[in-house]
């Protein structure tokens, strides 16, 4: 019996173990491993300054999860996802966006193509790479086809950017300017991103647009355009970093919206003004502020930190004391929402890996390309977002129910009256 007839007798789904197939499979395995390692590297860098009182790093590598197989167009590819160890006990974990738990087969072209592009694979390399990963689904994906797909995505982003927001209401919004390695003569360009949470507790992208250095003018144009698209109800709370452009624009367009400065950004800004040997202690002092159960105790922790470190590190403490009240706005909202509204983490976590991909590309990425790629990756990430914890309390926030230290003022008064009656 000839070799060809032996292959013909193979069951559907089985793959011939020829040298070329094995070579492609090894290449796919390396590509996946490199991408996951890049994700892990980004997470470890994020927590590199997170140390205990002895200066020991608290978030470290800790081997790998059990090896599993991912079904690809060239058969099963073995993958190993690395683990981390959180010595602080705060429950920090590494979850790969590329290889989430329980994933057993490669994603669609819609998900894989943007990742590969930002990974640094040129348009001409896509056909081989996608056929290796996706098999039949990738047939016909020539360089010209890839270029057409990118143009379609640009059109999709343009249509999405002009959609009607007439029936939308966002209770909380997160805003940030995201910088990438972009092929442009003007290095001051960035992408303005806004994520909102609806009345039903679902997070979604509101805007992904061009900006100029997070300027007031750029943010104003974006917020006014969202209003023109039908977004009339003001958000109850906005969360962002210390970039003044956004806050100035927000105060003009939505003056009723409360401001909450991001504690992750504030912590980084303060630590950057300190010697490394002091950073762990100061970071712990900051942690005691934003983790305090009441505003009163948070102010007390503020005073302790200022009095302890002002003499030696005045610039760092000036940075800490700046926007003091806006750092603690979250105390006027439900306690179950605090973990969501103290930081701009929804944006940071979504784009951390994307930033790393653009940094690894072969040269800079064109502006229109990065915008459509970010849009596609954002839409892919959005599908996996969970509803806000305690989302039913969003209705109380909209109705104007007052909260003090995370609890409804009416419930607090009711409890006090019951205790007095007893």
Q: How is this structure best described in words?
A:
The protein folds into three domains: 13-106, no CATH class; 111-260 and 364-387, Nucleotidyltransferase, domain 5; 263-342 and 390-422, no CATH class. The relative contact order is 0.11. Helix 9 (279-290) packs antiparallel against helix 10 (295-309). With 422 residues, the chain is α/β, with parallel strands linked by helices. It has helices at 3-8, 19-46, 109-119, 126-134, 143-161, 216-228, 244-253, 263-271, 279-290, 295-309, 314-321, 324-327, 338-341, 345-360, 367-382, 394-399, 409-421; strands at residues 59-64, 68-72, 75-79, 82-86, 170-178, 182-183, 189-198, 203-212, 237-240, 258-261, 365-366, 403-404, 407-408. The protein has 17 helices and 13 strands. Strand 12 and strand 13 (407-408) form a beta hairpin. The strands form five sheets. The protein has a five-stranded mixed sheet, sandwiched between helices. A two-stranded antiparallel ribbon has the order 1-4. Strands 2-3 form a two-stranded antiparallel sheet. It starts with a helix and ends with a helix.
